[in-house]
Request: fold
Amino acid sequence: MADPLPSVSETVTTHGRTVTDADLLAWAGLVHDFTRLHVDAEYMKDTPFGRPIAHGYIAMNLSVGLMFPEFASWYSPDGQDRALGWANVRFVAPVHVGDTLSCCRTVTAVSDDEIAHRVEVLNQDGTVVMTGTERLAPPHAAIETASERSTW
Reply:
């Protein structure tokens, strides 16, 4: 029997993961973004940030990875990616190497076609560093047609 769909307002919070120098450099290499803002400690020490800041998409992508394995029944109960897309993503505070990020997801809508989650990524101090809404196909939805049902 399939897992029941989550309820609107249901919330999950993940464990934390610390961002490392290796994470930042691997991401910079992957997306070919070696902007001084992200990789040049000497340059950044004289800025208001005081040190390099991580690429915003590191926080966004960690919000997905942190969902596993604890919440696989929400996210990918059959082992298939069910992401339909993101909306209203905002990087609202800097993330630095050494910050420990966790994710809080709250269900905002459930239908036969999709489940929407309000996503907040928080650092170790409880500061929200990223917000957005991720849409997922429910487990019973056909993967190959999920994108055709998208309304955003």
